[in-house]
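Regression check, protoporphyrin IX containing FE case 362:
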Amino acid sequence: MLSKPPVPAGLVILLALLLAVSLLALALPHAASAQVPQKHPDFPEGVSAINPGADLWRDVRQRDLPTAGISQVRQVDSGILINVHGDRWARFRMTSLAQYSGYALAAIFVIVVAFYAIRGRILIEGGLSGNMVRRFSDYERVVHWTLAIVFLFLALTGLVLLLGRPLLIPLFGKEIFGLIASASKEGHNLFGPLFLVSLVMMLISFGRRNIYEKGDMRWLLKGGGLIGDGHVSGGFFNMGEKTWYWMVILIGFVIAISGLILVSPNFGQGRVVMEVTHVIHTASAMLLIVVSVGHMYLGSLGSEGALEGMKTGYVDINWADAHHDRWGKACHAQDLIVSADEYARLIGTRTVPADEAVEQGK
Ligand code: HEM
Ligand code: HEM
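Current build output:
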């Protein structure tokens, strides 16, 4: 009888080991998935698999470690694949920034209308005389209106970008709004630099006359004539105008510089710098837009005789005496007043003298 050769004990152990390892290898993935009933907040309902790339993406998002990765691309922020502050900035812009800007605009319109309803137009005691005095040169008026028109254009196009979605989409629909918004963006970027140019022109031509003087404090203490009766003493520009002027210059420079940083992101400014700059640009632009509504009201409808100076270069001497008495006094002393007829001839129109008008039955 042939007897089976005995199986070597070593071989048995080896086979047993191989079997155990293979079984373990087969069982391990199941064991791992069986351990993952935990629900991940990013998984849709019912999905409970661990994303093998989770750790990788956690690192990419850099939630906990704001360090830059390594990239072959040599550019600003190229090592940061996902800017985690971007979400926060976008939410802040769409909610707080846009919302409070809208409230501020609505508030200033309500204030101006209420002021007009309560105080009415600021009139000159004794009315206008018809006798005029030169206040602004042609160049100064060109500087003012260039600045004003560029500012209003940038304000309008900027506001379309900031508030257009909730206000214009319901009116015009998405397609037309898309056209308006992209035209606004191109127009804003293109004409933005003109604002800086007109600001420098304004600084050079109006700067000297806006330096604060001793008498200006009295204007402030009397609330610019809005508190109590009568007008408050003022020089060529009063303290209110000077403050408006320096706001335009200083806030204007902040708007212009931040605007230039936004418009040409080729000078090493990264995404966080762009986000912070955008918030500074929008907040300072909104501040100046809101105050400009008050200025435009007082420079036109709100104050009798004020607009004439920026329209023709001349103001009524009674207006000068009422609002800028120290300057008015100097005009009287230097005999700078021109009669109504002379003024009509100077600006190329002819007024009809009162007695002639009666004869003509007008
Ligand atoms: C409808 C729009 C506007 C009207 C009717 C208007 C009217 C006036 C008037 C009448 C003056 C001269 C005041 C005086 O003689 O004492 C003036 C000055 C001035 N305006 Fe305007 N303006 C308008 C828009 C703007 C805008 C948008 C800006 C700039 C954001 C601006 C900036 C200035 C500045 C800086 C001065 C000079 C103030 C000073 O030097 O103290 N204006 N404006
Ligand atoms: C040198 C002048 C200026 C430049 C270069 C400039 C540039 C820019 C740029 C690049 C943007 C971002 C546009 C985008 O969303 O892609 C912007 C937004 C804006 N700008 Fe200007 N800007 C200038 C002056 C002004 C002025 C004077 C005002 C206001 C009177 C203004 C008001 C705004 C507003 C309200 C936004 C919208 C912000 C938003 O959509 O969140 N900008 N500007």
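Comparison notes: DSSP finds twelve helices and two strands in the chain. The beta strands are 132-134, 314-316. No diff flagged against the previous build.
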